[in-house]
Each structure stands twice: as C-alpha cells, then as structure tokens.
Please model this.
Amino acid sequence: MDAVAHLQKQWFDCIQHMLQEGFLNDQFAELKKLQDENNPDFVVEVVSLFFEDSQKLLSNMARALEQNVVDFKQVDAYVHQFKGSSASIGAMRLKDVCVSFRNYCEAQNLEGCLRCLQQVQQECSVLKNKLERLFMLEQQIVAAGGSIPAIH
Amino acid sequence: MGMMKIQEQAQQQDHESFGMNFVRRNRDRHFKILMIWIVALVLIGFKIFNYLEAGNKERRKEVLTSMCDQRAIMLQDQFSVSVNHVHALALMVSTFHYYKNPSAIDQETFADYTACTSFERPLMSGVAYAQRVVNSERESFEREHNWTIKTMDREPSPLRDEYAPVIFSQETLSYLESLDMMSGEEDRENILRARATGKAVLTSPFRLLGSHHLGVVLTFPVYKSRLPPSPSLEERVKATAGYVGGAFDVESLVDKLLRQLAAHEIILVNVYDITNTSNHLIMYGIQNEEGDTSLVHISKLDFGDPSRKHQMVCRYHQKEPIPWNAIAPAGCFFLIGFLVGYMLYSAAIHIVKIDDDFIKMQELKVRAEAADVAKSQFLATVSHEIRTPMNGVLGMLGLLLDTDLSSTQRDFAQTAQVCGRALIALINEVLDRAKIEAGKLELEAVPFDLRTILDDVLSLFSEKSRNKGVEFAVFVSDKVPDVVMGDPGRFRQIVTNLVGNSVKFTERGHIFVKVHLAEPSNTMTIKKSETSLNGGTKEGLGTSGDCQFKTLSGFEAADERNSWDTFKHLIADEEFHLDSSSNRVAAYETSDHVTLMVCVEDTGIGIPLHAQDRIFMPFMQADSSTSRNYGGTGIGLSISKCLVERMGGQISFVSRPQIGSTFFFTAVFERCKKNAFKEVKKPISEDLPSGFKGLKAILVDGKPVRAAVTRYHLKRLGIHVELASSIKKGVALFARNGSSISGNVMQPDIILVEKDLWISGEDAGMNMLQLDWKQNGHVFKLPKMILLATNINNVEFQQAKAAGFSDTVIMKPLRASMVAACLQQVGIGKKRLPGKDMNNETPFLQNLLSGRKILVVDDNRVNRRVAAGALKKFGAHVECADSGKAALDLLKLPHSFDACFMDIQMPEMDGFEATRRIRQMESEANKQMNGESTVEEAARKGEWHTPVLAMTADVIHATYEECLKCGMDGYVSKPFQEENLYQAVAKIFESKPVLEP
Model:
C-alpha cells in the first residue's frame, strides 16, 4: 500500500509538473476521462498514434524546408495537421509553437520556420519522455494493484 | 493651437537648455564672472558719469562766459558814453570860456550845467575843469581868482613851472577848487599825457579823494586855439588852455551796474588794470581769492585809452555743486546692473546646487531601483520555492480526497486543501506588496459571492480557532447582495489578514466577522475612536467567564457596535425591510454601487496604546516582542489598508488593551446586474445543496448574537428557524407545536442546541424534552437532535449521546456547506446523486448519443481517435473515415448513420466540399424517392438529410456562416468540450428520438 501511495505521489508530481509547465492542459484530463473499462488503453493508444504521426509529419516538414524552393503551403498544411493532433491530446506547448510556426509559414519566413521546426522537434521529444515516464508510472501503479487517480 | 504650444514649449526648452548649458559649463567660474561683471559695471558707470559731468561743465562755462561778456560790454558802453560826454564838456569849455570874451562860463554855470547833465555820465562821480597856469602867470591868476593855488594836501603850492588849479567843478567835486592837479603824481602824468595826445586818458586805479573808493581819473585837454591838422607835441602843449577831468568811482559804479543785472549774486567780477603786465592793479572787486577759482573767464575791456589796458575777470561765487544729475543715473545704472548680476549669480549657484542634488538623487534612485529589483527577485524566488512543495501537499490532499473518507475526514482534508490553497494565495499576495508599492496593482472586477469567500476564510481558520477554544463566526446581513462585482481575491486577502491577526492574538472569547451594508450614516462614523485610557484594567475579566456582555461569546469587546444591543437593531431593521417593500430598499437596489462595512471583532490582547498610531505602517508591529511571540512580518495590515483604499473604502479600528480589537473597513463594490452573472459559465458561488428548503428547526441558544449567526447559516440552506433562549422554552415551543399538529402549524425537523446551554445543568430539561416527545412520538416523525459545539471532549460526547443527541454534533465554526454535510449525514435533506454535480451535461449527452451511429471524418489519425473515443464514451457507435472521399463512399445512400462529424481542413477534399457533395447526393435521392417511394418508407424517413457537424479549432463567426452555407447543421469545437458538444448535438437530435434497433 505504501509503495502504491509512493508511486501515486510520483505520478501526481509528474502530471502536476506537466500541467503547470504547460506541456499538457485540461484536454489531457478530458482524454483521461474518456478512458474506462471498455477502453482501458485509450490514452496510451492516442498518444502513441500521436507520436507515430508526429514522426512522419516532422520528417515531412524537414524535407519540405530543405527544398531549394520551399513550398510554404505544403509546410503549413503539415503544421496544421500537427497542430490539430497536438490540440487533441492537449499538448499545449506544442500547439503554441505550431501557431507561431504557421505565422512564419504565412510570412514565408524560412529562418523562422526552421527555428520553429527545431523547437517543435525539441518539445516533441521532451513531451515524449515525460509521457513515457507517466505511462510507466501508471503501469507500475496498476501492477502494484493501485488505481490511477483522477486529475483535477 | 496645440501644435503652437508644443513648439513654444520646445523653443523654451531649447532656450532654457542653452542657459542651463552655459551655467553648467561654467560651474566653477561663476564668482569670477560676477567680479568681471561688477568691474565692467563700475567702468561703464564712470563713463556715464564723466559724460554727464562734462556736459555740466560745458554748460557752466558757457553761462559764465556769456554773463562775463555781457557785463564787460555794458561796462565798456557806459564808460565810453561818459567819456564822450566829458569830451563834449571839454569842447564846451573851450568854446564858451576861451573863444568868448568875456567868458560865458563861471563856476556857478559850470556847476549847474554839470549837475544837470550828470545822468549822461552815469559812471562818473563828478567833473572839474583845471586851467593851465604857467608860473609866470601865477600871480595874476591868483589875484584874479582871489585865492592861492594849493597842492593836493591843501598847502599853498610851492613854486613850479606850471600849475593846473581847478577853477570850475561840479558840486560833488567842489572840494577840488583851487587845488593844483599837477601836484598829484597820477594827475600830473595824466595831464601831460592828455595834452600830448589830445585824447582822453585814464589814470591807473587809485583811492579817490573823498570817497576813498578805488577809481580812475579821466582827463581831457582843452585847447585855446584851433590846432592845425596833425599837430606836433609842442604845438599841442602851447595850445593847451586847461584840462577837464572826471573821476570814475569804479567800485561803486560797477557795483551799481552789476546790481542792475540778473543773477548778480552768482558770479564774482573783478576788474583789473593790466597796463603793467607783471602787476595787475585791481580796479574793482575783492583782491583775495574767493569763490570758485577753478573756472575763470576773462573779458577784455576797452575804455578808449589806448595806452591802458583793462580786463574783467569773472568767476562763480560758489563752488560747483555736487553733480547729482550725473551721479544719480550712473549710480542707478550700477545698482541695477549689480542686482541683475547678483540675481543671475545666485540663480546660477542655485541651479548648480539643484543640478548636483538632481544627479545625486538620480544615483540614489538608480540604487533604490536596483534594490527594489533585487527585492522583487528575492520575493519571486522565495515564493516560487515555497510554491513548489505546496503543490506537492495540495496534490497529495487531492489524492486523499479521492479515497473513501468519512465526512469528518473529508472535512479535515478539504480544510487542509483550502488552507494550502490559501497559503499559496497568500504567497502571491506577499508578492502583491511589491506591486502595491509600485502602484501597479490592478483590481479585478468580476462577479463573486462574498458569502462564499467568507466561508472560505472561516474554514481557513476554523481548525485553529477550534483548538484554541475560541468562538468564531461569520455573519452576513441579508441586505448584502448575493453577488457583487469586485476583486474577490483582494477582498478575501483583507478579510484573511484581519481574521488571521485576530486568531493570532486571541486566546479566549470570540472572533466575529460581520458584513452589512454601510449606510451613509454608518460610513461617516468610521473613524478611529479614542480608546478609553482606563480600558486596561477590568477586574474579573476572562477568568470569571461571566456572560455579562451581550457579545458573541459573552466576553467584553472593544467596540460596542457588535454587541446585541446594536446588533438586534440591525437584524430587526433587516426583517422590517424584508417584510415591507420599503422605499429605502428600492433606493438601495437601484444604485449601482454597494458600500459594504466589514467588522472583524476579537477579544484578544488588543493593541497597546502607544502602538496604535503606527499599526498601518509596513513592517511595524505593536512591539518587537510581537514578532517573537506571534511571528509574522507586519506587512499585512499595511497591505490591507492599501487594498481597502483602492476599493474606495477606509479602514480603522478600535482597540482596548487586554479587552480586544475591532477592525472596520468599508469597501465599494459594483452591484451585479441580475442577468449578467448568470451568463458566466463558471459557478461563482459554491452551490449549496438545495435539499433543505422548507425544513424547520428550533434553535436553542441563550446568546442572541450567536443565535443570529446560526440562524444566518441555516437560513442560507433554506431552513426556517425559530429561536428559543433556553431549553425549557424550546421544549415549550416544541410542545406547543406538537400539540397543535392538527392545526398544521410548524413541525420542527431539527432541534439544534448549543453545547454550553446543555452543559450548564439543564439535563433535566433535556430529559423532559425526551419524555415530552415520546409522549407525542407516535403521531409524527421525531425531529433530529443536534448539538452545536466549539469543542467537545470524548466524555461530553458520550454524555451527549446518552442525553439524546444521538444524531450528530456539529462542530463550530459554522459554515453553511459544512452544516449541510452534517445534516445530510444524519439523513436530513435529499442527498445529491454522486457525479451529478460533476457535470450536468453528461447524462443528457448520454441520453442523446447512446445508440447513435456516427461517422467521424478527419484526416488526422489522432484527432479521429480522440473524437471517436469521446463519442463512444457517451454510448455512440462510431465509424471513421480519413478523407472526404472515404466519407462520401460511406455515406452513399442508403446508409445508417445518424450524424457525421466532419473536419473542415482536409487535403484533397475539404469538409465544405464533402458536405456539398453529400447534400447533392441526398437531394438527388430525395427527388427519386418522391417519385417512386413506398409510402411507409417516406413516412419513416421523410427526406434524406444526414446531420453534418463541422469540427473546427477556430470557432469564429465567419467559419460558422460558411458551414451553414454549404449545408452543414452546426459545428463543434475541437477538441470536444462537453458543453459545446451537448449544445450542438442537442440541436440536431432533440426532435428525433432514437430509433429502437
């Protein structure tokens, strides 16, 4: 029981940190709510979908920006997609970066776009790490027989 | 106009800056410049003086010259007139004395004639005629005249070559008769010169006989026979018959002459004979040098004797006066120049001083700002450091609350959580101090329920007050509106601060927070009343515990305002207003602002008199031992004061040492428009359970103030309360109600009893009560017995149970929500369904969506999955399509989808296009159907119209319009928000009931 509480505390700290630092927002909590007995791995599923997609989108973006003549419309479309999925899982910071990324695309500012791309990549990997840790903790909690608390 | 002004200002500034620059550049040379300026002034002053003075001198000289010349010419004219007349006289003598024989002139005739004509010779004292007598003729002459020739000394004349005895004389000179003119040195010389030249000659000046005035003698020769033209000397001597002479009494005559002229006293006139150039002989005037010798004018005089020269010397009688007309302008010029210079000098010194001060101040300012920044950084760092662990605490409390807890435990945990949140808020508030100091504090204006705020504050301190055994209560007047516009955080901050202080300094008695409307008269009376000086020693205080004061706890309070006597007026007043729709209430309702008066009363140690003046100063506490004993920084009250002032109110207090303090403040809030706050999504006030409405209770409490507080809280729950001041009376009330049950009068559901009343030996009454209702018990439901207590120990608790309070004990301080929880625990009121309060829409959405078949179209896998998940959660069957084309395939008619959620921005075919095509398909199908459909099919389906909802992240109006234009039925925001989803779904499904499969 003690171990579970400890793990729960760790989990709580972890998610609290992510919420406070803006990695995630309430949408993530909403996602959590959608997860129930019928759909026990919903969040993990969505998040892994997100990262699969993001991998693809990021490489697409990188490629598009490497072209001699950059097709900003194309890049914008990618970023739009990325923004949508970020919003869906509640990755606020990623979404915010995407917003400025799109602004740069609109202004056809290659330098800004590249900077944003870098930022997106970085944010993405940070988020991935954090979420992996979170899911790991969840697994451990479940394994130890505890339940995952709700987020307020 | 504005532009002009600005330009002018700019110019002025330029000008000023030039002057300032000059002053600054020469900051060390100001004194030198002043000295140079003074020297220059002196020089210029002298120049002016000299110029004016020279003019003066010139004028003076001119005046002197003109006066002198005028006098000289007059003198000369008069002189020559006299000379001419003497000449005429000489000719007359020669004519009538010598050419007539016998002589036509004798002494008498001469005297008469000359006397008559003396006005012709104004300068001459008289004239006489002397005959030339040769020694040889002397005897005959003497005989003829009958007297002997005498010398000037009136002696008979000695023997000489020739004589010139006076034979005729004017009366004024009659003493000269028979005197020999040749005997006088001067006269003799004159006579010789006259007969040699044949012209008028003058003697040098000498003292005249008789008058002893200075004078000259004029002599004319008289010839016996006519002279040849240009006669020789001998011829002249031979022809000489005698001499006419006259004396000029120069002194008196010139005097007379001058006196006739204007301004004769201004100048001094001297007349000199300068024939002998080395020795000027004075003819007129005073010899010694008097008057102004610096300025002298000399005029030439010509008296007609070429061998003698005369001159007139004039000078001013008085020395030149001090030239004020030259000194004054020069002096004034110097003075003004000096003053101007000095003013500029002192201004420059002042400027330099201020400049220096300014620079110093700026340095200090920079340093102060740096210190301020450092302070802010420090505060930020420290508060961040505190916030981080506090988040952990709060998180764990959240976890704790998720577990299964008893109501007490839940209350503890909730209290802890509230306290933790308040602590974080407080830390933020400490940060505000800096903001307030910088004047950067912005007050919010949001609707809030101040009763909830006060409940929060109460719960924040309830544990502490309970431990201390201090009664703690909040009362809000009914007239105070439920919701007001203002800054809830700041309001809460002030109240928290005041209550915190009270809790800190109070060990017994009570803390009472009271809020009511400040009527105009009330606001006026807010002022620091003088605390009575003898308030320090009240005998028998505290320990006796006598209920001698009608306050909340019975202890004496510093201010009488909260005691029952005034309090009941307030309540009575309120009830009156509630009952009757008085005009005054109406007036209150209509005004836009409400002024609230908040009192925080405690019975603590009070504030020492000497410290009362500086209680609102930052970092000041009553004395240094305060922070040692009680902790705290002492900034709280100063922040509160600032905040209260920002809210348009005032704060003050009344405090009596050892008795307690009462703090008052007023704050102005905007009245909230009734419909305005209903639109606000977030619940602004904590929802009180509504299941208690219409319940009735009897409250047994001996202390009216406390009873009023209890009543206030119960009233908020909708419970109607009847008061009884003692158990006996309560019983009586109950009995009455019970007996008249048939009359449908009030039947209490709850009986609340204060612990102290019960403890103080009324067990008997209690038992009686029990008995009482057992008698009537069969007839109606038993009321719940509830004990109200500040603190209670186990023994007492057991006793209470035994005495019939089996149901529960409500621990004070009271709070509406807490009371509600306790009442629910004992089964009073309807319990709320679990989860219902979490989300109102959830069950409705469940109703609307369960069993529906829904198509989700989105090219983004993640979005698709999330949307599907959300819809599935509410029981919908979801299918997905990843593009508009796929969606069209799936929606080929006939299909079984109830609705379609469509992403707008998709590659290839976007949401608008896809919808348009869907509608096209549908309309074709409908046409066909109308042509050849079976009756029941048409009846069942009506027309094909699949509801299509757009999913979009940017919910702007334009998008919505476009959605409608291409045939969509609505839109939902992405990611789904329940409320929004509910609204959209409700619109499309409301009319269509779910078809049973």
